[in-house]
Structures are given as C-alpha cells and as structure tokens.
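Hey L., structure's done. Input below.
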Amino acid sequence: MLKKNRTRLSVLLAALLLSACISPGPKQSSNVDVPQSWSRLSAADMPLASAPAAEVEQQWWRNFGDTTLDALITEALISNKTLQIAKARIEEARANRGLARSSLFPEVNATGGISRSNQGFATNNGTINIAQANLEATWELDIFGRNQARTRQAGAILESEEASAQAVRLGLLAEVARNYFDLRNYERQLVLTRANLASQQRTLELIQAQFRGGFSSDFDVSRAGAQVSTTAALIPVLQAGYDASLNRINILLGNAPGAKDQMLQAPQELKPLNQRILVAAPATVLAARPDVRAAERRFAASISGREAATAELFPNISLTAFFGVQSAGPLSTTPWGLGGNLIQPILNFGRIQSEIDAADARQKQAFLGYQETVLEALENMENALSSYLQETQRNGSLTSAVTQDRRAANLAQQQYTNGFTSLLDVLVAERDLLEAEANQAASDASLRKNLVAIYTAAGGGWKE
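Output:
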C-alpha cells in the first residue's frame, strides 16, 4: 500500500510540474504612431541618407579611422566601473528570477535528530536512545497562476536590467568618443593659439624696433603688446580644458587621472569624415535602442505584477508529504504521510484590493514611461540629424572663412611692412584669423560629436 501511494504521489507531482511550465509573454506595443521616415532628412541632404533596409551600425567608432579611439573604447568596455555595476545588477536580477522560479517546484527538506532520554511510561521508565531521519516535502500547486506571474515578472525585470546594461554600454562608448574629440579639439586649439601668439610676438618685436628707430609710436607698441597678452591668456584656459578631458578619459577607462596620459598626449590629426552616411529607419532604430527595450520590459513586468496581485483573491492550495525513519531502542519504524492544505482569503479589510489598485497604478506608470521613452528616442534622433546637418553647413562656411582670413592677415602684414596700411589693420586681421581657426577647430570636433550622437540615438554599440 505504501509503495502504491508513493507512485500516485509521483505521478501527481510530475503532472503538476508540466502544468507549471512558464512561457514568455509577448512583446508589448507602445501604441505610439512611429513615422516611416525621419522628418529632417530629404534627398537634398547629401551627408545623410535613410533607407528602409539600412541596419544600425554597431561598431560605429571604427568609422572614424582612429586607432587610438579604438584602443580607448576597447579598454573602457573592459574596465569601466559604471558598466561593471550594471553587469552586477544583471546578476542580482538573475538571482531574483531564480528565487521566483523556485516557488513553482516542491520544497524538500531533510531533518534528523538523536537524543537520549527517559520519557516515563512511554519508555517503561527507562533511558533509551532515540534517532530519527525525515524527508518533508511541500508544494504550492499554483492553480491560479500567482507564482507563475511572479516568475514572469522577475524574468521581465531581468530582461529590463540586461537592456539597461546595454544602454549603459552605449552611453559609455559615446562619452569616451565625445571626450576624445574634445581632447583633440583642445589640442588643436592650443597649437593654433601658440602659433598665432608667436606671430603676434614677432609683430610686437617689429613694432618695438620701429619705435626705437622713431618710425612708430608708443601707442602702437602698447596696442600690439595688449594683443599678445590677450592671446597668451587663452592658453591656460585651453590647457585646463585639455587636462579635464584627459582626466575624464582616464576615469572612463577605470583608471586614476594620469594613468593613460602617455597614450593620448601624442598629437593626432582627425581623419576626414565619410561624405555619405546611411541612417536606419525609425522602426529599426526603436527596435535597436536598449532604453526602449528596457522600458518595454518594465511594462511587461508590471503586467505580470498585476496578474500576481489579482491571483491573491483565489485559494492557495498546497500538498505536503512526509516520510521518515525512527529508531528507539530495539524498535524501528518508518512513519509517512500525505496531506493537502487550502487557504481562501475571506476577510482582509481591503488589503488584496489595495494591492491590485497599486499594481494597476504601477502598470499605468510603466506604460506611460514606455511611451515617453519611445517619443524621446524619436526626438533624440531627429535632433542629432538636424545638428549634424546644420554643423556640416557651418563647417563649410568656417573653412572658407579661415582661408579668407589667412589671406587677409598675410596681405595686412605685407602692406604694413611696406607702409601702405596701419598697425590696427594688422592686429584686427590677426585677431580675426585666430578666431576663425579656433571656430573651425571647434566645429570639426562638434561635427564628429554630432555624428556620435546620431550613432548613439540609433542604438548602435550595445552588442558585444
């Protein structure tokens, strides 16, 4: 009889285990009307083009053709502390999912004990040794799906944390690239400013020589000296910006400031950009962005949380099983038992309904957050496209301005030497040239940072 009961129990447990299998829920729609194309792009926008079949660029940093940038990104992906924290959150979420999933299966505990005692009439007023070993099993059947919903919720939270870590990775890549281009911008501006300072100092020396010969006034010397001092004052500001970018890159790579200075301090020219960049369509971008996937998974988790809260209204049914071996003196027994329990909430003064209402509110918040994330993703991409296109036009104008200002400065210097123009014309021309070259250098860096923003807004870089 005991063997027959054990067989029935095993069959029942196996059947209920099969019924408790969890299938992943479907992806949730944001109900946001996604445009078919980007409003900022047209056939006339030569630097950028969009195509329905275009894929999101994942290793976009290689398009800049800069081996130093490639090395920085490789090291940042290995050593960055923020990314490591995000990965630790995934481990925590995975453990929580395992914890939730364990509630779908029986819990089996082994107990044992040994004692020596005199239990009066029970032991014929004698002292005996009592030893026992037991196996106890309990299993909540989860007929109404509360534990299954909690497991789905934990699974969706895990997927959300994985997507959030991918978003951290994407943001890290963008920050490394932006700071690297800032560093190169400061580096170039320092070179330009020092070259212009050397030119202005030569002009000052010429005027001082003319003053000693009686061919210029003290006013001319003071005015030229003031321009030299003004240009020299730019160098400490630029150097501070350069140092800050250098320090930030070190931190992003998981190092103390100064650790990687040597690999960055060698001057390096920025490579020309690709003249034709293909951009993925809005639907492709939204599918690629990890922050959108994270928001969708949080919404899915809130749906499962609401299902679990609703299931609290129904009975909690569990099975229990017991089998043991007991030895007391010369006697030995094998006690066993099977049982079932049912708990049906009847009076809880609105506790369960309040939990359902709270779950409804969390679900609404998650859905609105999902929609907002989708809209912000579209906005980010449109802004990035517009910034790149406008900066491209500005960069072309600045390049032309530098050419013209350089020619004007040379002519002014020649005419002043030959006595055909005043010192003021020379100083103004040199000042204009310095400003134009500085603006062009900043624009070159901005153009690359705007391109980084496009790659980031498109969701590129999260795949390992």
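Residues 146-212 form the longest helix (67 residues). DSSP finds ten helices and seven strands in the chain.

-- N.
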